[in-house]
Each structure stands twice: as structure tokens, then as C-alpha cells.
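Q: Start with the shorter request: fold the first protein.
A: Done. Sequence, then structure:
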Amino acid sequence: MRPDHLDETPFVKLSGVHKTYEAETGNVRALDPVSFGIDRGHIVSVVGPSGCGKSTLLRILAGIDPATGGQVVIDGQEISGPVPNMGIVFQRDLLLDWRNVLDNVMLPAELARANMDETRSRAVALLSELGVGDFLNRLPFELSGGMRQRAAIARALLMRPSLLLLDEPFSALDAMTRDQMNVILQRLQQHERVTTLLITHSIAEAVFLSDRVVVMSARPGRVLDVIDIDLPTPRPLSIREEPAFAAIARRIRLLFEKEGVLAA
């Protein structure tokens, strides 16, 4: 698929988005023009080497960091600032140490002055689905890293966001816990159907979770390819051993090898 591929009517559409940071020692070009779309209810992963502008792209999409040029359109509206009705999960869970798990998840509802009874019921249901239902009254320091990230995901989903942004949320977890979180996120996506952008360094994670993978070059980041993942869902972890999965992962690795990102 060509790097400049765009859906006809995507929920999220990036067109020629680029970013240059100004500095006293000289301007730094972080992103060359980037274009792709995310269909409503789909997961798109952006995979690329460190420093390629993946997180910059996410911040631009969130309306936190303005682009130098190009256009970002969400649900037909061009964005020019922070996006309402959006959930974000970062590498660190950012839970508040003095609030228990349930109170941490309820924070967006408090800030939005939402109906507390309804949102509390949803918070409990989300935490239960994520396997943290027995730890509602525990403080964050009493939880493992994986459990803390589950709580962070529940918090991001509490207010039923139209867009979920995940910035390498599992990068600090051990391999087995990361696999477990991939399965949990996939199952949750089957229920919630929230439009999602996932930033990751992991080729296997990107292919396993996504409807589409955007492959980025080294800085300044540009789109090397946009690959539709035509694999059945839901996907068991064992699918990573299947020839079709391996072929997609190999295609992505070859792109990085040609770029000199990976040793050939």
C-alpha cells in the first residue's frame, strides 16, 4: 500500500502533517509530511525506531503540540487545540499515589462533573473486565506494573472517548505481562470499539493488535508504508507463529533493514 494512502471517509485523517522544532543551535525537523487515516472503531499502530517522531505525532493528534504544517481532521472537524472526549494512556500510568484504584479511575468523571453513580458502575465494570476488580480499594503502590496500567486504561475509557491514544503503554512491562496486556486490550476493543492510535516499538505487538500498521522511518519521521492487517479477529497469541503473521512482520522488518534501522 502506498505511504500516502488515505481512507475516503476516515474518522481520523492526517494530511501532510509535519513538525519542526526551533532551537538556538538550529531547527530540528522531527516529522516530514505524514498522511494516513484511521477508520471509526479501528486500531492503527505506528511503529518505528526511537526518535522517529511517533510520540510527536500522537501529541499533534491530541492537540497538545501544534503541527508546523498540514491538517488533522477528527470526525469531520479540523483540530486546532486539545481534543475533547479523548482518552490517553502513556508509558507511565500516572496514577495518583494518595487515591485508591477506583478513585483514580473516577477522576475524569469528577472533573467532568458527570453522574457519579453511573460512572462508578462503569468504572467497576471496566476494572472487573480488566482483571482489577478485586483491587478497587488498593493504593497504586500495592499493584504490579501491569495492574497499574490496567487501571490507567480503565480511567482513559471511563467517559467513553471517541478517540483513544496509547503512547507505548506496555513498554515497561516484562514480556509475559506485555503479552497478557495485548490479549486484554484486544478483548476490550472488541467490546468498546473505540477508535485507537497505538504508538509502539514492537512489530509483533503492532501486527497482533491492529487493523492497520503505519511504518515510520528514522528521524525525520516519514511514512515508509501503511499495511492493512488482514488477519481474523479475535487473535490468539499463537497466531504469531502462523505464516501469514510472520510474513507481515517480515515485511515490516525488511523496511527497517532497507532504511538501515536494523542490521541486515
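Q: Next, the second protein, separately.
A: Sequence, then structure:
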Amino acid sequence: MNEDNKDIHAENSENNQDNSVKDKVEDFLDEVIEEVDGQESNGDQPSETEILKSDLEKEKDKFLRLFAEFENYKRRTSKERIELFKTANQEVMTAMLPVLDDFDRALNEINKAKDKNLLKGVELIHNKFKEALKSKGLEAMEVKQGDAFDADIHEAITQIPAPSDKLKGKIVDVVENGYKLGEKIIRYPKVVTGQ
């Protein structure tokens, strides 16, 4: 059973136990309220039983609020823990990105030299390295010339006169690739935009 399934199974059993405890306490409180109601109908000090019933209702309300607050706390911390696991590799991945960039530049230069055996060897290492990073959650952001510029996901390093009217306000060139780790952007793509 993998870690996610174990976490889900453990969480489900905790929820069942919590619900069982909650149900037992609620049943007990309801029984006490009914017992107080029964005494009240017998005529034994109605004002005192009313006070006890009111106090019991207040305590039951406090208990239910506290239980709901605890459930919210558990849900929130569980979500934070899952997020932490997803982004735990962020520092390592960020440190590896310059190495990946160097591999890309090396491949371009080796491709110009036309040495097929050297190119094949470096491509093999490059692909293995990229797959290892991808298996840990790293994902390249797809950005290409002609895409609309979005300041939320792109980092514009400069603007140049657009080579054509179609590229005005759009991306003219991608200087450095961007990467995501899960859903979080760990490096924004550096782009040149057209005026």
C-alpha cells in the first residue's frame, strides 16, 4: 500500500473513531436531557430542572462547537502536510535547474559540431537527468514565441520592437525556461516581449 493510500486509510479510520466518540457523547447528552425532562414532568422542582436542562444544552453546544473546530484544525493541518510533502524537493530542484540549463546549451553546441556519437551520449545523459527530475514532480512550462504575455506566469526581461504586427504584446523569444513543481511555479520563464 503506498504512502497516499496509507494516509487516506488512517485518516478515514480517525474520522470514524471521532464520529463514534461524537455520537456516543451526543447520545449520552440526549439521554440526560430526556431524564431531566422526565423528572420535570413528575413535578420535582421544575425551576431547578429547567436550569439544569439549560446548562446541559449550553454544554452540548460548547462540545459540538469545539468538536467542529477540532475537525477544521485536523483538515487544515492535513492539507498543509500534504502541501509540504509535495514541495519538499523544491530547494533541490531549484539547485538542479542551472545544471539542466547547461545541458540544454551543451546539446545545442554539440549539435553544431556534428559529432553524432558525442551528441548521442550527451542526449542520453540529458534525457535520463530530465526523466529523474520529472519523476520527482518537476515539469517544464510550455512557453513559445507568439504566446500571449501573462505577468502572473512570465517574467519579462526586456521589450523590443515587434518583428511583425502579430507579435505586438506577445512573447517574441524565450530566454530561460520556466519550471513547476506540482502546481507551484519554482522558476518563472524569462521572456522577451514585442512592443
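Q: Describe the second briefly.
A: The chain has two domains: 3-86, 90-194. Helices lie at 3-42, 46-86, 90-113, 116-135.
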